[in-house]
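Duplicate of #3305? Posting structure anyway:
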């Protein structure tokens, strides 16, 4: 049976990323050795890092003065590295969910980390607006896409202090203005590569301003100086990231990707609104293009398990909602083909006919 992969993360990757990476694991660049058994400092692998950095810069139109790093530790280590490197006394956080909270918790270890606004009281079903960012904070931290709740900040917001963004689950899903950010980071396993690598886009001028000593491995300057090769980096995931970046470029770049993402999301959100059995869970203007959450309408609550089974029998994978939201979540990352969304919509229509 055909599988439609709506997993929230690790999640679907372009078929070409999987095939090219599998090929390189068997025989890298025709050298008769696996990608996994060569030096990360070899000329062939250096070329992989260079091309991945260049494509990242090209696709996102990253301005001069910024560097792209590939590190270990996941987005979760960035929760700590960001304040370690950038927060002298005070920082500000927008609380839009579990991941934002985890980031805030780490910052509190380094000084006064303030929550400027939160949508916790409504189980994070919207993005807070009309808050004010303290101008004496060293930075303002946001989570652009809230993977669990299905909300997303769709624009590059203005901030009077350096803007730091966790973009784990929506990086490269739309063109953006990187110059509005001081630092962007994320785990690769949602929209870019196999798990194990973390991307960091950093404005170099922000570094070197805090007075505390920073352990070598946690200091961005270490990795900047060594071009992400201070120690052995996650070689296979970086290779996977390069293949996804090539795929994005071959499709026509992020404007094309954004159009495809808007189309896919509209198909599913329209069906959620039309279908009497289902309803959405978040404020319409904040609906995520990457993680689409929905529940059974009150009148049909008892059908939840039945729909889950019905959809699973038709090849839908990974659509169970996060336990803190319930219901369903379809993750529609870049690599998810439109036909998968159509298959899920058909499934919802068919289920409605039965009831
Ligand atoms: C998945 C996720 C994380 C955690 O990433 P790890 O790489 O597992 O540390 C952090 N933030 C967001 C928004 C996520 O979706």
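Output from current build:
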């Amino acid at each position: 049976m055909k599988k439609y992969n709506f997993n929230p993360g690790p999640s679907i990757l372009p078929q070409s990323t999987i095939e090219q990476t599998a090929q390189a694991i068997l025989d890298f660049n025709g050298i008769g050795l696996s990608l996994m058994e060569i030096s990360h400092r070899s000329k062939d692998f250096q070329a992989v890092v260079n091309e991945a950095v260049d494509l990242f810069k090209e696709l996102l139109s990253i301005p001069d003065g910024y560097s792209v790093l590939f590190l270990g530790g996941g987005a979760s280590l960035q929760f700590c590295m960001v304040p370690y490197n950038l927060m002298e006394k005070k920082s500000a956080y927008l609380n839009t969910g579990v991941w934002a909270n985890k980031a805030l918790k780490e910052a509190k270890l380094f000084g006064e980390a303030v929550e400027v606004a939160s949508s916790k009281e409504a189980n994070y079903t919207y993005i807070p607006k009309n808050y004010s960012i303290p101008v004496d904070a060293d930075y303002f931290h946001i989570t652009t896409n809230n993977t669990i709740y299905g909300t997303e900040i769709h624009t590059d917001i203005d901030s009077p202090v350096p803007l730091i963004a966790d973009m784990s689950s929506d990086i490269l899903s739309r063109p953006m203005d990187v110059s509005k950010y001081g630092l962007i980071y994320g785990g690769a396993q949602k929209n870019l590569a196999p798990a194990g690598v973390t991307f960091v886009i950093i404005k170099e001028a922000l570094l070197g301003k805090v007075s505390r000593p920073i352990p070598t491995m946690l200091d961005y300057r270490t990795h900047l100086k060594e071009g992400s090769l201070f120690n052995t980096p996650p070689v296979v995931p970086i290779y996977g990231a390069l293949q996804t970046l090539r795929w994005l470029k071959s499709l026509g770049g992020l404007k094309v990707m954004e159009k495809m993402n808007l189309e896919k999301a509209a198909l599913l959100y329209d069906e959620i609104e039309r279908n009497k059995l289902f309803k959405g869970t978040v404020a319409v203007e904040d609906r995520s293009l990457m993680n689409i959450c929905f529940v059974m309408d009150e009148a049909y609550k008892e059908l939840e398990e039945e729909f889950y089974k019905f959809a699973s029998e038709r090849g839908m994978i990974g659509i169970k909602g996060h336990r803190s939201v319930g219901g369903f979540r379809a993750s529609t990352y870049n690599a998810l083909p439109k036909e998968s969304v159509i298959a899920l919509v058909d499934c919802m229509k068919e289920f409605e006919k039965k009831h």
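Confirmed duplicate; merging threads. The chain has two domains: 15-251, 253-354. Residues 254-274 form the longest helix (21 residues).
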